C-alpha cells in the first residue's frame, strides 16, 4: 500500500520501507506475528501489534533484523482514511506476479490514490505519476469507469485539459462531483493549477483532522510507556 506498490504500478519511487494493510481477525494477527518473528522484527514505536489499535486506524511499526532483511522497516495498518474496510480492499485488490515470489496483492489503484492523499508533500507528486502511468498504459482502449477515474483524480493540469477535450461529455457529467473540471473544459491552465492546489490543501486538512486524535492517543501511550520504564 506504499512506495513498493507505486513501483509495481509503474510510478517508480525509491522506498526502504514496506507498508502493508492487513486483515485483523485473530488468526491473521497470529500469522502476522509469526512472520514478524521469522524476520526478527522488533517494535520501534507505540502501539503494540493490537487488534483494537489497528481498528482505530493506528499503524504498527517494526524493524527487521534477520539476514537479508536487516534494517527493513515494516508498517502495518488496517484502516485507511477515505477507504473501505479491509474485506472490501481485499476484494478489489490488484495482483501482480513477481519472478521467484509469486502473486503479490496490491491496493487497487483507486484505493492507493486515496491512501496517498495525506499531509505529506511527497505523496502528491506520486499521485500525479500514478495517474500518468495508468493513462499511458491504458489510453488506447480505456473502460468507461477508467475514464471517469482519470477525470476525477488526475492532477496534471495539461493532461487534465487533454482528458476533458477527449471526453467532454463524461467531464460535463462529473462537474457536479469535481468542480475544477469546468475550468479544465475551458482550457484555463493557470486557473486549473490554482484549483488543483486548493483541492490538495483541502485533502491535507482532512488528513490533519483525521490524525489529530490518533496522534494525541499515540503521545499518551508513549508517555505511559516511558513512565513504566522509569
Strand order in the largest sheet: 1-4-3-2
**Largest β sheet strand count, sense and barrel closure:** 4 strands, mixed
User: What is the gyration radius calculated from CA atoms?
Assistant: 20 Å
- Between the first and last Cα atoms, what is the distance in angstroms? 37 Å
The number of helical runs is 11
Which shape, going by the Cα principal axes? globular
Number of strands: 6
The SS-based structural class is alpha+beta
Give the SSE order as H and E letters.
Answer: HEHEHEEHEEHHHHHHH
Number of folding domains? Answer: 2
Residues in helix, %: 55-70%
What does this structure look like?
By secondary structure, this protein is an alpha+beta fold. It folds into 2 domains: 3-108, no CATH class; 123-209, no CATH class. 56% of the residues lie in helices and 11% in strands. It contains 11 helices and 6 strands. The protein has helices spanning 3-8, 26-38, 51-56, 86-91, 109-115, 123-138, 144-153, 157-166, 168-174, 180-186, 189-229, and strands at 17-21, 42-43, 60-63, 73-77, 94-98, 102-106. The strands form 2 sheets. It has a 4-stranded mixed beta sheet with strand order 1-4-3-2, with no helix packed on it. A two-stranded antiparallel ribbon has the order 5-6. β5 and β6 (102-106) form a beta hairpin. α8 (157-166) packs across α9 (168-174) and α10 (180-186) packs antiparallel against α11 (189-229). The longest helix has 41 residues, at 189-229. The chain is globular. The mean pLDDT is 93.
Amino acid at each position: 500500500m506504499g512506495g513498493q506498490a507505486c513501483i509495481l504500478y509503474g510510478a517508480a519511487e525509491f522506498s526502504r520501507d514496506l507498508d502493508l494493510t492487513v486483515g485483523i481477525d485473530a488468526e491473521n494477527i497470529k500469522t502476522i506475528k509469526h512472520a514478524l518473528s521469522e524476520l526478527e522484527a522488533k517494535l520501534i514505536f507505540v502501539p503494540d501489534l493490537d487488534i483494537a489499535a489497528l481498528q482505530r486506524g493506528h499503524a504498527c511499526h517494526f524493524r527487521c533484523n534477520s539476514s537479508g532483511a536487516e534494517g527493513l522497516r515494516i508498517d502495518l495498518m488496517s484502516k485507511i482514511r477515505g477507504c473501505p474496510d479491509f474485506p472490501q480492499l481485499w476484494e478489489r485488490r490488484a495482483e501482480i506476479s513477481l519472478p521467484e515470489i509469486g502473486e503479490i496483492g496490491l491496493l487497487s489503484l483507486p484505493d492507493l490514490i486515496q491512501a496517498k492523499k495525506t499531509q505529506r508533500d511527497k505523496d502528491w507528486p506520486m499521485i500525479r505519476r500514478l495517474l500518468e502511468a495508468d493513462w499511458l498504459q491504458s489510453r488506447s482502449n480505456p473502460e468507461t469507469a477508467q475514464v471517469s477515474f482519470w477525470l476525477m483524480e488526475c492532477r496534471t493540469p495539461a493532461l487534465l485539459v487533454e482528458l476533458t477535450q477527449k471526453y467532454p461529455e463524461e467531464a460535463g457529467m462529473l462537474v457536479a462531483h469535481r468542480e475544477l473540471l469546468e475550468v479544465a473544459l475551458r482550457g484555463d491552465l493557470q486557473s486549473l493549477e490554482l484549483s488543483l492546489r486548493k483541492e490538495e490543501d483541502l485533502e491535507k486538512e482532512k488528513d490533519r483532522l483525521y490524525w489529530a486524535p490518533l496522534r494525541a492517543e499515540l503521545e499518551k501511550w508513549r508517555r505511559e510507556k516511558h513512565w513504566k520504564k522509569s
